[in-house]
Amino acid sequence: MVLKKEEIWERLRTKSVWLFPTNTPIFLAGEEHMNPAILGVNTLSDRFIRYIVMLLFQGDGTAARSANISKLEAAGTYTVKLSDVQVQPASMPQIPNGSMSIEDPFLSIEGNCGLYGQVSGNSLNLTIVWWDDDV
Questions:
Q1: This model's pTM is above 0.85
Q2: Closest Cα partner for 25 from 95, 117, 113, 110?
Q3: Spatial separation of the C-alpha atoms in residues 81 and 110, rounded to whole Å
Q4: How far is CA 119 from CA 12, 24, 73, in A?
Q5: Which of 58, 123, 128, 54 is closest to 90 using CA atoms?
Q6: Does 1 have pLDDT greater than 90?
Q7: Is 5-134 CATH 3.40.1350?
Q8: DSSP single-letter state for residue 102
């Protein structure tokens, strides 16, 4: 089914998470359209595709950091989707740079996959904008 722009706007979601030096799940089990927490994995339900339209990193005001975003594949392996995103202390780098398009997401996560982040140094705040579609 092809969605109209208005339908995508209604599905648009925003979330803020802290990323740490260890592989940090961006979406948690039990959240909307994620697999139940009882399964112990942070993966999307197999009935959905999650379209990522924007990432906004917030510098910590102290030191420059770099961030990686990885996709946890259904097979249990990680694939780096964005590597070495440079975040200066007082900056807020956005991906994609400059603007987002809800009709042209830059990353998608299929069912039984997850999204993880990792930073060098202490921690960074990440705001993510996405929408889900039924398979």
A1: yes
A2: 117
A3: 14
A4: 26, 9, 20
A5: 58
A6: no
A7: no
A8: T
Mean pLDDT computed over 116-132: 95
Amino acid at 96: P
Query: pLDDT tens, 56-87?
Result: 999 989 999 999 999 999 999 999 999 999 99
Q: Residues 6 or more apart from 128 whose CB is under 8 A from it?
A: 14, 15, 16, 17, 26, 52, 54, 55, 56
Tell me the longest C-alpha to C-alpha distance in the chain.
Answer: 47
Number of Cβ atoms within 10 Å of the Cβ of 42: 21
Q: Is the peptide bond before 36 cis (omega within 30 degrees of 0)?
A: no
Element (H, E) at 128: strand 124-134
Q: What pLDDT shows up at residue 130?
A: 97
Where are the chain's structural domains? Answer: 5-134
Helix (H, G, I), strand (E, B) or coil at 7: helix
Burial pattern 26-36, b for ≥16 Cβ within 10 A else e, equals bbebeeebbbe
